[in-house]
Amino acid sequence: MNQTEIGKFIAKCRREKKLTQAQLAEKLNITDRAVSKWETGKSMPDSSILLELCEILGITVNELLSGEEIDIESSEKRADENLAALKRKDENNMTKNAIIAIAFSVTLLTGIMVCLICNIAISGNLTWSLIPASSIVFAWVISFPSIILGKRGIIVSFISFSVFILPYLFLLGSLVKVKEVFSIGAGMALVSIVFLWIIAAVFIRMGKERKLIALGITFLLSIPFLLIVNVILSKIIDEPVFDIWDMLSVFLLLIFAFVSFLCGHAKKK
Q1: Tell me: the pLDDT tens digits for 58-109?
Q2: DSSP 207
Q3: How many CB atoms lie within 10 A of CB 266?
Q4: Alpha carbons 37 and 170: distance in angstroms, whole number
Q5: Is pTM beyond 0.70 here?
Q6: Which of 24, 72, 103, 222 is most buried per CB count within 10 Å?
């Protein structure tokens, strides 16, 4: 696949449909800057909008990936070539991710072994080393799906975090022999899980081209999240619900949200 040729073909089809870059972008719910990047060969349309783009331009996905109109006779051959190119690209990405995932796993395993060996050498048995070892395993369980699967693994990592955070806190509380680790941590973890899933839904709903808007919404949602956390902590450890540092945090979050919305609006323009 030649990105430059594909970009020229998109521009040609767009002009034939008498559409401006802004009009095409509006139909696809993206920015005209994204369309400009396609047409200059700097990037490719996201797979999630590929079919909709082809429908608007009146072409097939095969023609889009080929960068030209295809007659019936050569259509099947080009389709095979394009599928083979996409398959090679996916295989290369998977190989790269697999190498990174193996290196990451070996590094963490080495860290666990160092902790265990040092603990046994100093104390004669396993004591404190179980704490970093369990934390490293927890980090691996959460991180590994995102590393091996890329963007597709982020949701799997979220699910892993949601499932294993409470068992991890219970284990950690047992190892350090402090029950508050689980009693306080469980409440914080449940609130955090809900917050993270809401943020994930916001970014999915906003799409790739409206990340700055999603970021602004995240900053705004962080304010009620902060208040909920403070209320829970105030009931557990008898701390004030709101203090000067919380006011400063809210002020900064509002500024960050305003800047994100402003940048997102400017980017869309």
Answers
A1: 888 778 877 776 655 555 556 556 666 666 666 677 788 888 989 999 999 9
A2: -
A3: 9
A4: 50
A5: no
A6: 24
